[in-house]
């Protein structure tokens, strides 16, 4: 067989292999073609011939090409209507007569791709013209346009078997036949005609991989299975959709012409390799239309929105509104009139830059404040044409002159942008009745390079201080003095000194007691001399850490009168005015005790050292011929009473004296009550002496514990 063209090889081989089995099949006699990609498709130059036969004379034959730059004449010749450099990867040709219609696919490939495709089709090995194996079933790929209209079923292809066997039947299987979605395709068991039962949707399923086999009368497979590919040819049935909204872009005012604002891209569910999904973008409407109806341009292929007006027109402060809305259209079929469209709205915000400095509404502000009062005294107002939501509008105020004592502060009101001038340290009319401040205002954000702050960004504030009747002031405050406790009633403690700040009013001052917790003091209302009305006692509960605190008032003669408060701290020095106390005053012991150490005594004193310990412990004179007890000193504050012999069950009073170390020393003469009880089986019985029943073991443990504490 001599093959002159590789593009004609496939049908010629089939004719040779299966000539005896072929009959007229409506449709394209060949459904897939390959064209090598040229540098350019030349206008009116034939590219190939397509053969369509409806087996009934091709009455009213009409061809439609998916790319409008190409056309198929009635004789089947395909050529370009103009010079085309890029036609995409594929063309689809739809042929239709009164009796049949079919689709052919033309793949545009490179030279290497063409050779690979041919080798795949024929599985050639060694000699290109000799097939490796004769195929009993011929199942050429089927191409079906989506969205076909009734009637259904309609024939879409045919499977041919080279060997005719009586009783043999074709059987079709796969997704779309006996697998979900079931029942879309079926095959004539005898003739091999393949038909589709309903309209197809490429966006749901683009390809079906079916299998054809031949069975005998018993259902046994005698040939196959052979793969049958069904491809759904895309129709332009999906509008472009903008899925990523809302679309909001920002551009700085004064930006150069051609500044990219944002990108808008749409999605088309149709076949991306065809013009059905080839989108072009266009701006349909701009709102508002001032200062120019064409403020922006959109790249028709990329969807980039850019500015097209001069930077002067892109001035936020002169615009009707800083927000523009664009209605953007995406159209498929490369933007041709026949294309489907989808629209979306793009919102573009003109962002502010700091090209306007803040300016005071007037050059001088007035304020009046009473002396001694703090808080906001005046609000300074400014104007700024920039965006109130940005740092280009927010004001920052600074006092640059007239505030050496830091008596004033100024802060920005975040809602109004006003400067709130405050007094933070009370002003004194007698020192200065007038103050003049120089204040400047700036923005949080720096100004752009070609803009500067001018004279209107500074202002003067004139502040008048009003005189008020101020209360007298004690000097010093608080006042401190040291006195011995127990000084005689009527003693002078201190003479206070209070002055009236209102030196220009020449007022008199009177004094009075304000707080005197113990009632020990009085004050001369005229000269402020403080004296005692009772004994000052350092040990009083009104004294804390040796300090007694009282407060006094100084009242001027103003109308109404003003009052000042002074605090007096009296530090009291200790004197030996408290006798020591002895503890415990009761002790118990068993009448047969072997340990005659009865009790450990302790002494305490409310006074301070050196008017306290070391204490001196002594026994008063004992009556009777024999001494019954003695006292032993353990340390500076403790001593131990020891029996010299066991005593009979009874109550005994032991006279003891304890003396402190003060000058002169003070002595406390007291008695220790001793109960001698009977003890049996570790139980102490003091009933005869009106004592409590307690365990002897506990008594011994207590004595031992006290003794141990005496010797640390």
Automatic annotation (TrEMBL):
Gene3D superfamilies found in the cross-reference section: Cadherins
Single GO MF annotation: beta-catenin binding
GO biological process: adherens junction organization; calcium-dependent cell-cell adhesion via plasma membrane cell adhesion molecules; cell migration; cell morphogenesis; cell-cell adhesion mediated by cadherin; cell-cell junction assembly; homophilic cell adhesion via plasma membrane adhesion molecules
Cadherin domain: residues covered: 169-242, 243-360, 361-474, 475-582, 581-692
Pfam families named among the record's database cross-references: Cadherin (PF00028), Cadherin_pro (PF08758)
CDD domains associated with the record: Cadherin_repeat
InterPro entries named in the record: Cadherin (IPR039808), Cadherin-like_dom (IPR002126), Cadherin-like_sf (IPR015919), Cadherin_CS (IPR020894), Cadherin_pro_dom (IPR014868)
Main location: membrane
UniProt-annotated location(s): Cell membrane; Cytoplasm
Top-rank taxon: Eukaryota
Keywords: Calcium, Cell adhesion, Cell membrane, Cleavage on pair of basic residues, Cytoplasm, Glycoprotein, GPI-anchor, Lipoprotein, Membrane, Metal-binding, Repeat, Signal
GO cellular-component term (any): catenin complex
Membrane topology recorded in Swiss-Prot or TrEMBL: Lipid-anchor; GPI-anchor
PANTHER family reported in the protein's UniProt record: CADHERIN-13 (PTHR24027:SF80), CADHERIN-23 (PTHR24027)
Subunit (UniProt): By contrast to classical cadherins, homodimerization in trans is not mediated by cadherin EC1 domain strand-swapping, but instead through a homophilic adhesive interface which joins two elongated EC1-EC2 domains through a region near their Ca2+-binding sites to form a tetrahedral, X-like shape.
Its job: Cadherins are calcium-dependent cell adhesion proteins. They preferentially interact with themselves in a homophilic manner in connecting cells; cadherins may thus contribute to the sorting of heterogeneous cell types. May act as a negative regulator of neural cell growth.
Protein name, per record: Cadherin-13
Name of encoding gene: Cdh13
């Amino acid at each position: 067989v001599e093959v002159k063209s590789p593009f004609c090889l496939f049908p010629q081989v089939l004719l040779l292999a299966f000539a005896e089995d072929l009959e007229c099949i409506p449709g394209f006699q060949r459904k897939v073609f390959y064209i090598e990609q040229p540098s350019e498709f030349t206008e009116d130059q034939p590219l190939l011939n397509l053969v369509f036969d409806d087996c009934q004379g091709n009455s009213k034959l009409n061809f439609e090409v998916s790319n409008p730059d190409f056309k198929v004449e009635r004789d089947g010749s395909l050529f370009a209507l103009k010079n085309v450099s890029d036609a995409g990867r594929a063309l689809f040709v739809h042929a239709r007569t009164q009796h049949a219609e079919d689709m052919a696919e033309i793949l545009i490939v490179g030279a290497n791709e063409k050779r690979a495709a041919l080798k795949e089709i024929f599985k050639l090995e060694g000699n290109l013209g000799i097939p490796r194996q004769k195929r009993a079933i011929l199942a050429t790929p089927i191409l079906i346009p989506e969205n076909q209209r009734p009637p259904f079923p309609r024939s879409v292809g045919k499977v041919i078997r080279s060997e005719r066997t009586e009783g043999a039947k074709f059987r079709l299987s796969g997704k779309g036949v006996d697998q979900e979605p079931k029942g879309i395709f079926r095959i004539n068991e005898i003739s091999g005609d393949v038909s589709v039962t309903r309209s197809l949707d490429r966006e749901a399923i683009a390809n079906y991989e079916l299998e054809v086999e031949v069975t005998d009368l018993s259902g046994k497979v005698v040939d196959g299975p052979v793969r049958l590919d069904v491809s759904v040819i895309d129709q332009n049935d999906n509008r472009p959709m903008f899925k990523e909204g809302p679309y909001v872009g920002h551009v700085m005012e004064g930006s150069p012409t051609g500044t990219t604002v944002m990108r808008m891209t749409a999605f088309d569910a149709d076949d991306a390799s065809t013009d059905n999904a080839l989108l072009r973008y266009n701006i349909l409407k701009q709102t508002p239309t001032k200062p120019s109806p064409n403020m922006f341009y959109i790249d028709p292929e990329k969807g980039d929105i850019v500015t097209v007006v001069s930077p002067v027109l892109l001035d936020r402060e002169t615009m009707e509104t800083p927000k523009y809305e664009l209605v953007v259209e995406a159209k498929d079929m490369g933007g041709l009139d026949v294309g489907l469209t989808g629209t979306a709205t793009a919102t573009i915000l003109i962002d502010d830059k700091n090209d306007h400095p803040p300016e005071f509404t007037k050059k001088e502000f007035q304020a009046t404040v009473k002396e001694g009062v703090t808080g906001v005294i005046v609000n300074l107002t400014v104007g700024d044409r920039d965006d109130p939501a940005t740092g280009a509008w927010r004001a920052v105020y600074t006092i640059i002159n007239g505030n050496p004592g830091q008596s004033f502060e100024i802060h920005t009101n975040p809602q109004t942008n006003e400067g709130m001038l405050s007094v933070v340290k009370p002003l004194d009319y007698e020192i200065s009745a007038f103050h003049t401040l120089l204040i400047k205002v700036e923005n949080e954000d720096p100004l752009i390079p070609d803009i500067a702050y001018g004279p209107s960004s500074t202002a003067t504030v004139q502040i008048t201080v009003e005189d008020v009747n101020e209360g007298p002031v004690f000097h010093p405050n608080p006042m401190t003095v040291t006195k011995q406790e127990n000084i005689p009633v009527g003693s002078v403690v201190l003479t206070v000194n209070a002055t009236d700040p209102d030196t220009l009013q020449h007022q008199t001052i009177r004094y009075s007691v304000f707080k005197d917790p113990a009632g020990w003091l009085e004050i001369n209302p005229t000269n402020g001399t403080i004296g005692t009305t009772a004994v000052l006692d350092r040990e009083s509960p009104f004294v804390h850490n040796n300090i007694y605190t009282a407060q006094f008032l100084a009242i001027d003669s103003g109308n109404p009168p003003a009052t000042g408060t002074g605090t007096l701290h009296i530090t009291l020095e200790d004197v030996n005015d408290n006798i020591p106390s002895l503890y415990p005053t009761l002790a118990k012991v068993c009448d047969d005790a072997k340990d005659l150490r009865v009790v450990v005594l302790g002494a305490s004193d409310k006074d301070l050292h050196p008017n306290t310990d070391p204490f001196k412990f002594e026994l008063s004179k004992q009556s009777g011929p024999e001494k019954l007890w003695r006292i032993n000193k353990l340390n500076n504050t403790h001593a131990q009473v020891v029996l010299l012999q066991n005593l009979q069950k009874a109550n005994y009073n032991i006279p003891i004296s304890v003396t402190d170390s003060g000058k002169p020393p003070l002595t406390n003469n007291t008695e220790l009550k001793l109960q001698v009880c009977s003890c049996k089986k570790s139980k102490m019985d003091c009933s005869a002496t009106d004592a409590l029943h307690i365990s002897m073991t506990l008594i011994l443990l207590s004595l031992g514990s006290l003794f141990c504490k005496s010797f640390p």
